[in-house]
């Protein structure tokens, strides 16, 4: 009876040992592939840079609101053309350009009017000179004629000479009168041209 009992106990013990060995073998066999897989993965990561973990990218959806955001790299430089001072300067330049153009146009008109005024003034001086020359010639003729007609004997003795002098005086007077008329007509033409050029009448007359 004791032999059967010991035999049964030995059988149970042997069965337990077999079961334990099977479990240990199963754990060993199951752990080996895992360790082999981890090694393969590590070697793959070292060889393939694309397999490395990608850096985290922040956008409006995942940007932290309660924490400070560290920015790596130099601080952005402000473009001089986008600063408020530059914008104000551009606005002032834009406002000054129309005014500057108007000033230039006004300066051109003034210069044009001044040029016409100078021409007209010179022509008036020429008219004054022609008028004085005509007046002097007429007076000379009148004095010479008065002296000649006052002395009848002298006129009779020098009738031929006087006729020649009288003809010369009359020709000079006619020439000077024509020069004066031409100068006056030239002045009127100048005034008309000045008006057509846009010069005010107050600056012409």
If you had to describe this structure to a student in words, what would you say it looks like?
The protein has 205 residues and is mainly α. The chain folds into two domains: 2-51; 106-203. It contains four helices and no strands. The chain has helices spanning 2-47, 84-150, 152-157, 159-196. Helix 2 (84-150) runs antiparallel to helix 4. The longest helix is centred in the middle third of the chain and has 67 residues, at 84-150. The termini are far apart.
- Helical percentage: over 70%
- End-to-end separation in angstroms reads 162 Å
- Low-confidence runs: 30-35
Q: Shape from CA axes?
A: rod-shaped
The main sheet comes to: none
* Nearest-integer average pLDDT: 75
| H/E series | HHHH
- Radius of gyration, CA atoms, in whole angstroms: 62 Å
Number of strands: 0
Number of helices: 4
Number of domains: 2
Query: Which range does the strand content fall in?
Result: under 5%
Query: Structural class, from secondary structure content?
Result: mainly alpha
What are the key terms here?
205 residues
Q: How would you sum up this structure in a few lines?
A:
With 205 residues, this protein is mainly alpha-helical. The chain is built from four helices and no strands.
Task: Reconstruct the topology from this structure.
Layout: H1 2-47, H2 84-150, H3 152-157, H4 159-196
């Amino acid at each position: 009876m004791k032999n059967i009992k010991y035999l049964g106990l030995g059988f149970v013990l042997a069965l337990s040992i077999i079961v334990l060995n099977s479990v240990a073998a199963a754990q060993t066999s199951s752990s080996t592939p895992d360790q082999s897989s981890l090694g393969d993965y590590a070697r793959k990561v070292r060889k393939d840079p694309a397999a490395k973990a990608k850096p985290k990218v922040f956008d409006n959806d995942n940007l932290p609101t309660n924490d400070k955001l560290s920015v790596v790299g130099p601080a952005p430089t402000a473009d001089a053309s986008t600063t408020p001072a530059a914008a104000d300067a551009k606005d002032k330049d834009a406002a000054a350009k129309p005014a500057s153009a108007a000033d230039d146009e006004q300066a051109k008109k003034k210069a044009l009017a001044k040029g016409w005024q100078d021409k007209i003034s010179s022509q008036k001086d020429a008219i004054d000179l022609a008028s004085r020359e005509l007046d002097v010639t007429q007076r000379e003729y009148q004095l010479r004629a008065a002296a000649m007609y006052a002395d009848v004997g002298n006129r009779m003795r020098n009738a031929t000479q006087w006729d020649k002098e009288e003809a010369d005086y009359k020709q000079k007077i006619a020439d000077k009168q024509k020069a004066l008329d031409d100068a006056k007509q030239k002045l009127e033409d100048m005034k008309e041209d000045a008006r057509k050029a846009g010069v005010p009448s107050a600056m012409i007359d």
